[in-house]
Design brief:
The complex is a heterodimer of chains A (469) and B (225). Chain A has 469 residues and is of the alpha+beta class. In chain A, 50% of the residues lie in helices and 18% in strands. In chain A, the strands form three sheets. A six-stranded mixed β-barrel of chain A has the order 2-5-10-7-9-8. Chain A has a two-stranded antiparallel ribbon with strand order 3-4. A two-stranded antiparallel ribbon of chain A has the order 13-14. In chain A, α2 (15-53) crosses α10 (345-397) and α9 (288-340) packs antiparallel against α10. The radius of gyration of chain A is 35 Å and the shape is elongated. Chain A starts with a helix and ends with a helix. With 225 residues, chain B is α/β, with parallel strands linked by helices. Chain B has helices spanning 44-51, 74-81, 97-108, 115-125, 130-133, 142-154, 172-187, 200-204; strands spanning 4-11, 21-28, 33-38, 59-64, 67-68, 82-85, 160-164, 192-196, 208-213, 216-220. In chain B, strands 6-7-8-3-9-10 form a six-stranded mixed sheet. A four-stranded antiparallel sheet of chain B has the order 2-1-4-5, with helices on one face. In chain B, a hairpin with a 2-residue loop joins β9 (208-213) and β10. The two termini of chain B are 26 Å apart. The chains are: A alpha+beta (469), B alpha/beta (225). Chains A and B meet through α1, α9 and α12 of A and α2 and α3 of B.
């Protein structure tokens, strides 16, 4: 205990030297608090984004690879294959959806003024006339992933109805329901355009209002290509669609979205699906471009802060080492006296180290306060400049930009393609950062203390005192 | 039983062939004041450093309590058994007089007493007032520093006191006061006091006088000192 008390008294006895050391240490700690706080906040957002966006696997035709193969036909991936891929242990979830065209003798499509139930007919070999599609049947394995139902200005199930859940249940738009006088509990009977033998009798369990654009573009709307009218969609479960026993060449389009538990497992997942028969014409990838687009400025900012921190730590450490060497001569006499009084080397070392630790801890407390206040404006300033740089780069590359602002929530601002970088960041000291900074402060204390100890305790007390006297 | 015994002790500095102490055999008994006299460079202070456990004999043994100093923890010896008064004071100059004494007590592991009270008593004993006790060493005169060094040496109540020119910076009155303390320590408290000196006043209180020349120690009759 007396060692600690003496260490504290020593701090006051040698004010000049200690104020100099404390100033350098404080500067290092404030810089470290700012850079680590920003760096850690950036890393967390980058990692969260990587897990959120980087976990989605794209399996798509690779046209370049397909061209190199010299094959004329596009290779197909069977429905069973999609199911098989979904069984992978590397996946956290899979979203399967199916889409096919329907026609119905009893239900008219929105904007189908002819009420013709199909524009053309042909003999498809079944003895029945084949009709053009009037509606689109969409089967989705997970209603929660129907994004239009989770955003303002999208779709909303009206009171009295609910989302589909069981087999042969569906939901339809209010426009389609009003046109055909359909209420919740009614049944829609329809057939697949390409496989007329596959009949659907779907119970309407929900009717939704739809504020989304009905057509993909003005040309479609003007021509009233009602088969493209989104208000003619009949939405049901993936199981309902697949219960009819479709094959991929039977006018059904299967879409599969796979989400990895860990984006780093993309290579392992690709190896697994290749082993299960995925043709080389298909590429398996995560959306690196989107990931880079969103996190680019953050990565740049993290790089800047890391470099700055490294420079500060190296320069600061050098200054502290120099100060420690300067202090050695003065302390050498003090150590000689203490040794002559019979104090053990180890206790002297603990005393010197205690002084350095006390200085560092005091600087740590002050540095955490100042650094945490300064972090946010500095982060805003750096990120803002990095976003501008990223925007200029993107502008140069593309006319159409999609801006996505992230600050805990996601919203569409503008644009058609591309990705909006993170432009806001909330930086705050967390326990992890405090621990890191504390360790750095203790390392600085150790650095300045250990050098003095190493030099001073090498000598015998008589030698030190003899030199002094 | 002797407090300290020198058995054929010789000493030469590292890198030197010249013996500064030559084959000395002496015994220092409790309750006596010993003075060592001689010319500068004769080997007085070197012997004192050996007795204080600050250095180790090149050959021979210095035995304390039956054990050679070369074989024991000399930090412990200096902290608890020997009280050393340096010619150059060797005080912590940025600390107060009181802190110097208290720190010595802490290092020595003094327990069971009020350290501050004891420190102030010791300082008073050598003529340092409580007001001066709280001054930094640098703000005190050489004579005051000398006495603080003495108080520090007595702080842990050692059995052996070794002093190098302890009155060299003191005026006559203060020197006499200090010498009374040394005499009292030896004759009343049974301590073994060994003093290196040129001072006739110091020699006057000695029970035994040794003269050193070229590293060779010879006894000097007390009345001749």
């Amino acid at each position: 205990m007396y060692i600690l008390i003496n260490a504290m008294k020593n701090l006051l006895r040698n004010k000049g030297r200690n104020i100099l050391i404390a100033t350098v240490t404080l500067a290092i700690i404030i810089s470290t608090v700012v850079t680590l706080t920003i760096g850690n906040a950036s890393s967390k957002i980058i990692e969260d984004t990587r897990l959120r966006i980087g976990s989605k696997v794209n399996i798509a035709i690779d046209l370049q690879e397909h061209g190199r193969s010299g094959k004329m036909e596009m290779p197909e991936v069977g429905i069973d294959d999609f199911f098989s891929y979904a069984q992978s242990d590397y996946l956290s979830k899979s979203i399967l959806s199916a889409q096919l065209y329907l026609y119905s003798a009893t239900t008219f499509a929105v904007d189908d003024d002819s009420k013709a139930q199909g524009i053309w007919e042909s003999n498809d070999g079944t003895g029945e006339a084949r009709k053009a599609g009037t509606m689109i049947l969409i089967g989705n394995s997970d209603p929660d992933t129907l994004t239009d139902f989770s955003v303002d200005g999208g779709r909303k199930i009206l009171p009295g109805g609910r989302m589909y859940s069981g087999l042969d249940e569906c939901i339809i738009s209010s426009d389609l329901a009003e046109l055909n006088g359909i209420s919740v509990g009614d049944t829609i009977s329809a057939r697949s355009v390409f496989e007329p033998v596959k009949n659907f009798d779907l119970v309407v369990v929900g009717i939704y209002s739809d504020e989304t654009a009905a057509y993909p573009g003005p040309a479609y709307e003007e021509a009233k290509f009602f088969v493209f009218n989104r208000h003619n969609e009949v939405i049901t479960s993936f199981e309902t669609v697949m219960s009819k026993g479709f094959e991929t060449d039977e006018g059904i389009q299967i879409n599969a979205e796979y989400y990895l538990k860990n984006p780093d497992d993309i290579s392992k997942f690709e190896a697994e699906v290749r082993a299960k028969g995925l043709p080389d014409d298909y590429s398996v990838s995560i959306n690196q471009k989107e990931l880079d687009g969103i996190t680019g400025p953050l990565k740049s900012m993290a790089g800047i802060t890391s470099t700055f921190m490294a420079v500060i730590l190296i320069l600061g450490a050098i200054v502290l080492v120099l100060l420690a060497f300067i202090a050695v001569r003065e302390r050498q006499y003090e150590v000689g006296v203490l040794r002559a009084m019979g104090m053990e080397k180890a206790k002297i070392a603990v005393g010197i180290l205690s002084e350095a630790v006390i200085i560092s801890l005091m600087c740590l407390i002050i540095g955490l306060g100042i650094g945490s206040v300064a972090s946010q404006p500095i982060a805003d300033s750096i990120l803002s400049s990095q976003v501008e740089v990223a925007a200029e780069k993107t502008k140069a590359n593309s006319e159409n930009l999609q801006f996505l602002v992230m600050s805990g929530k996601t919203e569409l601002v503008n644009g058609l393609n591309g990705y909006t970088p993170v432009s806001e960041i909330q930086v705050a000291l967390d326990a992890h950062t405090v621990i890191q900074i504390t360790l750095i402060a203790l390392a600085l204390a150790g650095l300045s203390g250990v050098i003095g100890i190493a030099v001073i305790t090498r000598y015998e007390p008589l030698k030190i005192l003899r030199e002094r006297n | 039983m002797s407090t300290l015994t020198l058995q054929n002790v010789s000493y030469k500095y590292e890198g030197s062939e010249r013996l500064v102490i030559r084959d000395v055999s002496l015994s220092f008994e409790p309750g006596n004041v010993y003075t060592i006299i001689g010319k500068s460079g004769a080997g007085k202070s070197t012997l004192l450093n050996l007795l204080a456990g600050l250095d180790v004999a090149t050959t021979g043994h210095i035995v304390y309590d039956g054990v050679s100093l070369a074989e024991i923890n000399r930090n412990h010896y200096r902290a608890r058994k020997a009280g050393i008064i340096f010619q150059g004071f060797n005080l912590l100059t940025n600390a107060t007089a009181l802190d110097n004494i208290l720190l010595s007590m802490h290092i020595s592991g003094v327990k069971g007493i009020n350290k501050k009270t004891r420190a102030l008593e010791l300082l008073e004993k050598v003529g340092i007032s409580p007001e001066k006790a709280n001054r930094k060493i640098l703000k005190l005169s050489g004579g005051e520093q000398q006495r603080i060094g003495m108080a520090r040496a007595l702080a842990h109540n050692p059995e052996l006191i070794v002093a190098d020119e302890p009155t060299g910076n003191l005026d006559e009155d203060t020197a006499n006061r200090v010498l009374e303390v040394f005499a009292s320590l030896a004759h009343e408290e049974g301590k073994c006091v060994i003093i290196v000196t040129h001072s006739k006043e110091v020699i006057a209180i000695a029970d035994e006088i040794w003269s050193v020349d070229e590293g060779v120690f010879r006894p000097v009759p007390v009345n001749e000192g």
